[in-house]
Structures are given as structure tokens and as C-alpha cells.
């Protein structure tokens, strides 16, 4: 200690003075190395009943040592952390160095310390109690300073070796100066004011502040300042602890910067989502929709380009339909390429990958189980794709797929190029299949109609079974309601309602049901799909929905100028659902025959309306039908 005094100049500015300052700190402070206590101030000796023989940390600190030892191991050298102990002990702050750690406990922990012998209070064993205290201060893994408020401007009177290493200043360059010399241009004024207020009020404080080393380099300093009082309670010194937290602080600031950047990007993407929704609503056809979507995405600062591709099963490629900005170099990619677009088409899920040093993220364009292709977005080279961004872009892709579906569905009635697909289905979940088998009859699909509310039903003519046999067989089927609308000698007109609405399900996917003929548990279904649509995806969707589906034939054909179906469809647009239903039921029910096999009252009941309402709908529909034939005079 004499050598230390000589180096420091003696007086209050030596290590002994530092040790004396810690002796007056009211919080328990211990220094440990390799599980051995190398120093304990009076508050710690009193709180934990540490005597001369109690150098083993596990013995002196009892069960709390396990928690402390684990925390020390988990604390990075040169950093600090706070941990919570039990309710009696409160918490502790650990400053970790290369060769040990300093632990500062909250004031007033319990005195339980295991099975250590009860020894008198006193110094830790050693050749010199003062020497141990001095060594603890000098070798502490954090910067330690002591200032004297009785001197002008509260100057430093002691700094340890760690402080010199952190700041780059020598002992003689700082003793006698106020510690504010570490502050600089970017030091936080609020943190400075907080320290000044704490000193004015004689209370401890901890702040994080940007300081400057002797060579001018910046570092983040976690500063803790606490008053030291004498026996009378008067503040005689201030002890300070400095911890270089630059690495942790820079990581926190980088995280904040990335978070702010991401929030900005997400705000822009939400605006992009609104713009794409407007495009979906306003575009006139699929090609225009896809081109405008790609243009809008590529115009966003966060993205370099976008393209939409569609699977071509004949060539096993993904054919590019539209692109904007930086897109694929070629018009085709193979479906087995190592590319996120290929992965998305294979899995039906978004996929992210790096292609030629740039991040690409692909999203399936799928609606109602029909695949319309893949949307691929190319991002900036250095930017990762966040989960929230993926969710928003997935929603955007679903909106695009919905728009494509709407355009494809609208083309069913107007396109001249169609593919007629014939399928055989034996799955009993399809009501006509089960009913034709159980009632031993033949069913032929006529039309689908709307009933009261949003419910849709399908009308079939049934031959080979009586009305009673049909209703009895349907009663044994789950989720199927069979209602006899008209009963004749050779056939009946029935109405099938159930959870499985094949016609409506296909219509939502842009497919027209031309015919359903079911006999002995097998249904032959004829579909009409626009040639521009993904016919393969439509057929796969039916196969997935109904087990035992076999493809009978594909036939491409051109429609005539106006088919009977188109004329009927045009007339149907002019009729309300109720008018169309009344006209259709009257015709199929033989209401226009003589003698009438059914009455207006019966037809009204089948629609769930009164007889006068039924006749009003029927007369209006008849008038519109006449105008369709003879012109609106």
C-alpha cells in the first residue's frame, strides 16, 4: 500500500482513501473471484454476518450464491447486470471483470448464510485488511471514482485502473478535475441534468450517457453515482462506478433503427395494399390487373421489382405473365428450379430465398382452392423480410387472386373459347350420387335456384322412384334435404338442398355446370371452363373434393354467336331471383300445361312465399320474357 500511496501522492486521492469511502457505502458490497470473497464492506459483513473465516462465497452468502454464481457466468466481461433474489434479499447488481466480479446488494438483505461458523465481525483474513481493500478497488472490473464535494467543483480524488483503461486518461490527468470532462458534443443533456439533480439532493443515480475518451473516440458509459456518509450522516464523498456498455448500447440503437425502418416500410406496404385493392376493383381484365399490380409493387421504395407467373403443366415451367422493375431474366422458370416461386407452387405457402445475392419472396395466387399462379417480389439486397411484412404481402396476394377469380368467373358467360370437361364421380358425399344409389333412380340436373334468403337449391328430374321413395332415401342421408315439387306418373321434379353445393362451389371458381346425370350411384358431370383459365387446377380441385373422381374427356370448342344458354343467361340477368324462381318452377312444375299437375298455391309454398306474391313474380317474369323475344315496345 505504501507503493500505491507513493504513486498516487497520498491523501484522499489514494486507494486507501477509496477503500475508506467504500467502508461508508450503506449498500452491501462484496468482491468475488473464483468463488472466494476478496473484499466485503462493513454493510456486507453486517448483513451477511461475514467473519474473518468466511471467505468461501457459498458459505458466506448461503443459498443466494447459486443464483449469483449463475448470473456472474452469464454476464459478459466488462458489462453489468441486475438480478432479482428472493423477497427478503431484494436484488443485486453485478459488475463483471476478467478476473472476478463486484456485487452490490440492495440495502437490507437477510442474514441467512448457510452453515458458516459464527465469527466476530472484522476484516477478511489476510496479511493486511487495508491491503485487501485497496486491491479490491484497484482490481475491480469496473471503473471506480471518488470525488470530494467539500472541494471546489466536487473534483475527483481517486480513480482505479479500470477507469484509466476505459477512458484512456492517466491518474494524474483526472484527479483534481470534475468528471464532466468526459462529456462532449453528443452527450445527453437530460442524463447530465439527472446526475446533477441527484448530487444536489444527495441521492444515488444511474444513467447511460455517451462519453469521450482521451483520444476523442466515443463510448457509452453506464454511470452510477452514490453519496458516501460519515457516522453523523453527512455526505463526505461521492463514489462513482463506470461501465463501458458500448457494444450493448450500439446493438440496442441498431435494433431501434431497424424497428423504425420496418415500421416505415410496413406503413408504405399498407398504403400499397390499399392501392392494389383499388386496382383489383377497377381493372377490366386479368392481364390489366396483373400488369398494374406489378407496376405498383415495383414503384414502392422497399422493392426492386415484381412479377406474376403461371404454371404450365405441359412444359413443366412457370411462364411469366407480367413483370415490372427487376424481374427474372427469362420468360420461363422450371418448376423444379431452386427458386422461391417454384417452392411456393409446390407447397402453396410463401417462400423466401436469396437469388443472385438478392432476397426474393414468393406468394401463391390461390382462391377457393383454384391456383392462378405465383406473385414474386424482389427486395433490396441487404434487407431481410419480417414476419409482419410477409403477412401483409400474403393478404395482398390473396386480394390479387380474388380479383383474378372475379375476372375469370365473369368470362364464363362471355368467352367463346371454352373447354368442356366430363367427369365421373362416385363419392357419396355428392347428394345425387347417394340418392340415385339408395332410391334406385336416375337424376338429371335442371337448374339451381335461390330460395328465401341466401340459400341455393338445385332442381333435378327423378325417374324410376316414387316421391315417397325419394324422400325416404334422402331422410337417411346427412345434410341433405329432398323436397318433391311436382309428382307425375313417370317422373318427379325434386329440389335438393344440402351442405355440399357442387354447382355453387364450381360457379365461385369460374366454372359452369352444364349437366349432372346420376344413375345407380355414379354421376356424369359436364363442366364448361374458359380456355384461358387453369383447367388443370379446376379438375384437381374437384378430385381433391370428391374421392373416386375420374376424368372422362376434355374437348376444346368455340361457341356460336349466341347459344341458348347465353340467351337464358341474359334473360336471367334481367330477372330478380324471385321472378326467375317463380318462372322456372312454373315451367318445370307443368304449370303451363293443361290440365295443370300443380297449383300456384303449391308452387308458392315451395318458394316460401304467399300465393299472391308468387303470381306477382310470375306475371312480371312473363312480361320480361315476352320483351326479350318481341322487343320492348
Automatic annotation (TrEMBL):
InterPro entries: BAT_GAF/HTH-assoc, HTH_bacterioopsin, PAC, PAS, PAS-assoc_C, PAS-like_dom_sf. Residues 205-257 form the PAC domain. SMART domains: PAC, PAS. Residues 95-130 are annotated as: Disordered. Residues 135-202 form the PAS domain. Pfam families: BAT, HTH_10, PAS_8, PAS_9. The keyword Transcription regulation applies. Keywords: Chromophore, Flavoprotein, FMN, Transcription, Transcription regulation. It comes from the Archaea. This is Bacterio-opsin activator. The lineage of its organism: Archaea, Methanobacteriati, Methanobacteriota, Stenosarchaea group, Halobacteria.
